[in-house]
Amino acid sequence: MATLLGSESPCTWGKRRSRNRNIITRISQSQISGRGFSRGTQLPEALLQERDKRARWHGIPVLLQKLYESSHLNSDFTQTHAVLKELSSLLSMEAMSFVTEDRKTAQESTFPNTYTFDLFGGVDLLVEILMRPTLTTLKKPKMNDDLVKDCLSVLYNCCICTEGVTKSLAARDDFVLFLFTLMTNKKTFLQTATLIEDILGVKKEMIQLEGIPNLSGLVQSFDQQQLANFCRILSVTISEPDVGNDDKHTLLAKNAQQKRNASPSRAEVNQVTLLNIPGFIERLCKLATRKVSEATGTSNFLQELEDWYTWLDNALVLDALMQMATDEAEHSSTESSDESTLATSPLRHRLPQSMKIVHEIMYKVEVLYVLCVLLMGRQRNQVHKMLAEFRLIPGLNNLFDKLIWRKYTSSNHVVHGQNENCDCSPEISFKIQFLRLLQSFSDHHENKYLLLNSQELNELSAISLKANIPEVEALVNTDRSLVCDGKKGLLTRLLTVMKREPPDSSFRFWQARAVESFLRGATSYADQMFLLKRGLLEHILYCIIDSGCKSRDVLQSYFDLLGELMKFNIDAFKRFNKYVDSEEKFQTFLSQINSSLVDSNMLVRCIVLSLDRFESQTEDVKVVEVLSECCLLSYMARVENRLSFLFRLINIINVQTLTQENVSCLNTSLVILMLARRRGKLPFYLNALREKEYAEKYPGCLLNNFHNLLRFWQRHYLNKDKDSTCLENSSCIPFSFWKETVSVLLGTDRTSLCAIASYIDEPYMELDQDLLED
């Protein structure tokens, strides 16, 4: 040992404080280099005890030595468990403080006991103890379930308190796969699931589910509670990694990434693996739609509460429960709602039922998230068929009033990102996941009519009959045995709560998205009238004009919804004009549109397309009347206003900044020019763009930018994997005309009056000619 630690001479060791630091330094260096100690507990026990008090190690290195010595291959682990319990008591308080104090930065000074435990090889030793039965063919006594639970709990505590532990465990594929085998034991399931979730969250490469031994048998062995918890793990394995808001988020970068990775991603492969497990989707549907009364009995439920500490990594659930109790106390005119009052009030006896509700809500959040991801994947049609067959939508409809929207929940702080793993209450998360599921379920799919009940379907048929138009084929083909039950369908219930929501509530964003998805695709007059008769248009206009709503996200969702609701519908424009009955209201409406064209351009597109159709229907007296009276149509009919929108739409985007969110601006500008081309006015519009450039003293910039955007458009939308039906359905313009118009605009013949090149003077040609080069 002298050769490793040096002599005891003052010149080598200096003060005792330096000795403590030298021991730690040598251990750290050996762990990094692989030379020297394999674990800190190889140091003599006497030396460790001598240094312990001054270094404030609290006996952890010595206890680790005892743990190592008592866990040899032929051990019955009795003493091992006793030592581990001692260690656990030293570490658990640090983990609890980490959970309850807003996640401090994991460092040595904050959590010294956990840091010391890891430094002296505690993490590696626990992994070795857990996996030891798999490393020998000798018949050994089965490891005690409580010992396994405690090992897992200590590892989880180390993960959340010590930087790098989670990553080091994630790098061990053998250990990660081994953990899944522990999930077969119900007694250790919750601790295992919690640790796996933490590990997979930092793993560099997504785990492949097909590599888990007997995954199908494992999942089929789970009870409903375990399956719900397992969904929390699955969410990490089936979701594409979040690329954030950097350059990778642009369409240019996404297209390049897709070109490099032509094969299905690991997330897509994992989705297929799950769908191949017999009964998996059916069980998720049952979990998502079961009533609270059908869940685990109270006695079993209260036993489960003991495990919540390891299941949750924050105190949000308990906060939610206390808030429920506080709300009930205020409702009962209780003067105080502090802990002492709650402890002595009758509310205490009712709290378990509230806990049971939140417990069930937490399960459903995870299940709905998994179903939502699967609905958005490549196997969408297969998933849709199963969700319809297992009556997911009618089941959710039956839960709507009693559980999903049983009361108002404030949501002003909720973020609208695609990944909704936000630190919000279970009730808020539940509502958001429910609305996202409805959005994914309805979007461009004929199964959207399952959101209605039989009476409402009959109403749609009656609307079509009265208007003397054929019923939509998807409506005719809807299986009436799979639609919603009761007096109201799910869509109608959603409209009811949507109108009650406060102006800036973040739920409005998701509610509007869900309703908009019902309208998206080929425009259906009957669908629009169904919603117009329920006052949706007036409600949207109130929110945009009169409510004082400032949220850009909410306003964007309402612009998009308004566009789908009004498109090609003369009755909608008539209703619009009735509500917007003053110049002041109209100017407020225009101001909201002009404040952010990225948010409102879909509505602009709807107005332009509708105006074009109405102008070709002048034999219809009703259309002529609305055309002459509607302030919105009159405004868009003026060519200078259409040109103004065109200038700004082209100017606010370029190829380098195009994203899924703003690419609609490019398509809206194309719609304006396609309609102009139909009427032989394309040269007029292109010349107006040229004159605008010279008036603004930047000749060539606008047209060169547009030229580059259209070159990108060709690469993006003419890709064989790209679905162009959305553009065609939303505009009622054949995609062949879209392609043809873009080709004409990109023509190289400078004598063509319809080619952009003809309007750019030679010195200003192709300012960004290499922009699209790979």
Automatic annotation (TrEMBL):
GO BP: any one term: ubiquitin-dependent protein catabolic process
Organism: Chanos chanos (Milkfish)
Domain of life from the UniProt record: Eukaryota
PANTHER family: SHORT TRANSIENT RECEPTOR POTENTIAL CHANNEL 4-ASSOCIATED PROTEIN (PTHR31743:SF1), TRANSIENT RECEPTOR POTENTIAL CHANNEL 4-ASSOCIATED PROTEIN TCPC4AP (PTHR31743)
Protein name listed in UniProt: Transient receptor potential cation channel, subfamily C, member 4 associated protein a
MF terms in GO: phosphatase binding
tRNA-binding as UniProt keyword: no
Record flagged with keyword Ribonucleoprotein: no
Keywords: Receptor
InterPro entries (alphabetical): TRPC4AP
Gene name of the record: trpc4apa
Gene Ontology CC: one annotated term: Cul4A-RING E3 ubiquitin ligase complex
Pfam families according to UniProt: DUF3689
